[in-house]
Automatic annotation (TrEMBL):
It comes from the Bacteria. Belongs to the class-III pyridoxal-phosphate-dependent aminotransferase family. One of its GO terms (cellular component) is cytosol. It comes from Hydrogenophaga borbori. This is Aspartate aminotransferase family protein.
Amino acid sequence: MQSSHVFHRQLLQDMPVAVSGKGITLTDSQGKTYLDASGGAAVSCLGHGHPDVIAAMHAQLDQLAYAHTSFFTTAVAEELADTLIDTAPQGMSNVYFVSGGSEAVEAALKMARQYFVEIGQPQREHFIARRQSYHGNTLGALAVGGNAWRREQFKPLLIEVEHVSPCYEYRDKRADETAEQYGQRLVAELEAAIERLGGDKVIAFVAETVGGATAGVLTPVPGYFKGVRELCDRHGILLILDEVMCGMGRTGTLHACEQEGVVPDLLTIAKGLGGGYQPIGAVLAQNRIVETFRKGSGLFQHGHTYLGHAVACAAALAVQRVIQRDGLLAQVRERGAQLQALFQDAFGEHPHVGDVRGRGLFWGVELVADRASKQWFDPELKLHARLKRAAMAEGLMVYPAGGSVDGRCGDHILLAPPFISTPDELAQIVHRLRTAIDKTLAGVP
Ligand code: PLP
């Protein structure tokens, strides 16, 4: 630890200094190593120090680091776009590159609004999104996000957004309904919100296909997104799926929406797109939206200085090529099943692990004071934060979520290990997690 002039999120906490990374391990300045079980924040899909990605970045730097998009496109941005479109959900034929997840969400919100202005429906001015969701920290993204704690002090600056329930089967599915019925109930709730606002007044429904940062991975129930898609279509509303965290292979398919059998109008991606080697995000857009702009105003009225940055595109292209070349999507599914079995062994009978849920290599663990009643721990204990610290002491990185959110509590942690993790490394991760949980709980009064 050392005093720091860097202005981090946490001002009262000394951070270890990360000095190197190799595979799924990070090393700090004291020589202590950490298994990166969360990929940072579900970012480092290829782990650290991948030689192919580094070589591609060097080659791009030697040739051209940067060209502003108001003057040029670049071969590498075009090639990355072609690669993404080759594997995109049906009808998506255009990519808009940005520098991260929040920028991708902001761009998607503005694309959606501009689309309706250009097709002569300027009266559409509302977004509907979900509680206990996270879409980023810039003002538009924060407005659609459904984390009351993050929004509270900035509320006067945020556009008004209608929020409906998240798909949170463990907590909200009633005992007398099936998962499918629960999903239909959520769709009916969305329909009521649309009717309240007026079906012709809504721009888009915004949702993470698999929820991430706010409640420790929320997987959709069968049929939920199909119902949402039908509802949006019936009212001419766009569906924006935010796969900044759950996308780009994390859940075992390139896009998480593939597993739901739905195609969004706009799809945001980031994190695993560049795997942390460079900051990059993107919006994939349905052809009809971009064609509307092309035949109408001729521009998308938005932009940032670093759109389509050549080195970022080179890094992302290399990451995506490695994933394809090495068959890593299949590996995510295989390792995901191994991880699930390890969780079952470690936590199947654990009195304070209420739920372990996820897909591929994207998992959430929810702690409870009492397993039978699903009672939360007192939020004042900030158990999720304590658990993160205990895990770091064990040489393990896990991503915490919790506290009191929208009147609900909860202590969750999120695991998103790199796609290259070996079975032995996964076993080590679960072993250290179990130790960290037990040590954390031993300190609870
Ligand atoms: N959307 C989702 C679903 C996210 O999980 C995040 C970040 O965690 C964001 C958007 C914001 O991305 P960024 O932090 O790159 O701005």
